[in-house]
Each structure stands twice: as C-alpha cells, then as structure tokens.
Amino acid sequence: MKTIGVFDSGVGGLSVLRALLAEMPDAHFVYLADGSHAPYGERSAQQVAERAQRITARLRKDHAVDALVVACNTATALAIESLRRQHPDWPIVGVEPALKPAAALSRTGHIGVLATRGTVESERFARLRARVESESGRPLHFNGQACDGLADAIERGDEPATRILCARYLDALRANANTPEPMDTLVLGCTHYPFAADILQALAGPAVRLVETGAPVARRTRAVLGLPEATRSETGTPQITLLSTGDPAPLAQAAARWLGTSVRAAHMDV
After folding, report:
1. Are 40 and 75 in contact (CB under 8 A)?
2. Helix, strand, coil shares of the chain as percentages rounded to 5?
3. What backbone phi and psi angles, to 5 degrees, belong to 225?
4. What is the CA angle 71-73-75, rounded to 5?
C-alpha cells in the first residue's frame, strides 16, 4: 500500500483528497491541514514557503509518505519549486488553476479565474497564463480575480458570508471584463472553492461552466507512483489519517460533510 501525504492551509484540500480517494482506492492518505496558519492566500510568499518546507519535512520524516500532493494553489505557486529542489528524489505533485482545460472547453475564449491573492499575483500564475495563451490557436481572455476572505469563509462553514463574497467577486469579474464576448467558463483556482460550487453556479448562471483541478491532480499522482488505473469492480478501502496544526475538530467535521467519512482528526505541532 502506498502512503500519500496531502496538505493544505485548511480544509480546502479535501476537494483534492476526494478525487485522490476515487483514483486510488487502495492507498493510505495522510492529510494535514495547517489550521494554525490558515488561510495562506493573504500571507507573504516567505511565510507560505517556510510553512510548506516545515510540513513537507515533517510528513516525510514521521509518516514515510511515498509522494506528496500540495493541495493548495497558493502553496504550489509560492513554494513547490523550492520543495522539489530540496527533495529531488521524491515525487511532489502540485495544483494550479485549470487554465488549459478551461481554454479547451470555452467557446467564447473569455475565461474567469477565481483564486487567492497569493495565486493571482504569483509569477507561476503569470507564466502559466502566458504559456496557455501562446499555445492556443485563438485569442484567449483570462480575467483573474483575487478573492480575499472567500477561502476563510468556506473554511469556517459560514454560508451567508460565502454567498456574499461569491456574488462580490463574480460581479467584479463582469465589471473588469475587457472583451465583448461573454464569460462562459469559470476556473475555481483555490481548492476551497469547489465546496462553494453550488453557490457559484447559481450566481454565474447555467451558461457558465465551472472547472476545478482535483481529478487531473489525482491522475497525475497515480501516474508518478506507477500505480495501475483503478477499475469500477475494485473494492479497496482507502485508509485516511487526518491531522491539523490547529483545532482538529473542524477538519473532522469537514471530512464527514464532504468525504462522507467518520475518521477522527488529531492535532500535530509543526
């Protein structure tokens, strides 16, 4: 059985874990929520990089994980390159806004991107955007929007605040559009945001398709570990270890709500 480490600033990475569980039913997953430092989106690049390095070293040392999934767009944008330099012998898979899949799906070429400020303002995001635009055979318009406070509202389970913020940032996307073509695709560029997908879809309307990254990340993780593709007939039961640097109760509650599991979470100092 392979052991796979997964970490995020909070519970948002559970959206990636959900896809990993479906892709690798026989694996053991160690999920760490850095609750004492959440959210990452409004922290400095140095702070995020330092937390990512400490967490990565701890998961590798204490849990002997075979691969690491950085289930946070902000941490991927600001820290994954340094993590790979520090651990060149070890598979590390990150997440990034699904710009390329969105470009393939969009009919109008006008694509909205909701993400944290740390992601939107990162060099990695700028490079990704430039690469997808250069590889496209048609004009693309990516309209990025930093969503301060949204990940935190989702983390706290505050639905009224989540709804208000979703409406605010979708309105900002529409107001900042510099193209006559309507936005028909919306990238959820933070792993927390899929848990507000119903709200975002209702506000955006049926003509807008939402795109997230969990499934591609899960397929990539399985591939780097050299595991065969799971079949529908397999009945493997994944093992899940839930850890939090903050109060573990919200993590356990979120896992019960979004993963349908009754696994208890434990506190871990990192």
Report:
1. yes
2. 50, 15, 35
3. -90, -5
4. 80
Exposed / middle / buried, residue 233 (Cβ in 10 Å: 0-12, 13-18, 19+): exposed
Catalytic-labelled residue, pool 11, 38, 72, 95? 72
Extract the runs of DSSP E, i.e. beta strands, from the chain. 3-8, 28-33, 67-70, 92-94, 110-115, 141-146, 185-188, 209-211, 239-244, 265-267
User: Of residues 11, 17, 33, 190, which has the active-site annotation?
Assistant: 190
Catalytic annotation on 72? yes
Residue 150 and residue 192: Cα distance in Å, rounded?
A: 8
Tell me the pLDDT of the chain averaged across its residues.
Answer: 93
Q: Can 166 be counted among the known catalytic residues?
A: no
pLDDT of res. 37:
93
Q: How far is CA 266 from CA 30, 38, 139, 161, 248, in A?
A: 11, 17, 49, 28, 6
User: Which percentage of the chain shows pLDDT scores above 70?
Assistant: 97
Single-letter amino acid code for the residue at 62 = D
> Helix, strand, or coil here: 268?
coil
**215: three-class secondary structure by DSSP:** helix
Rounded Cα distance, 166 and 50, in Å: 30
Note the pLDDT of residue 34: 97
Tell me the sheet residues that pair with 209.
185
Structure tokens that stand for 133 in this block: 């635009």
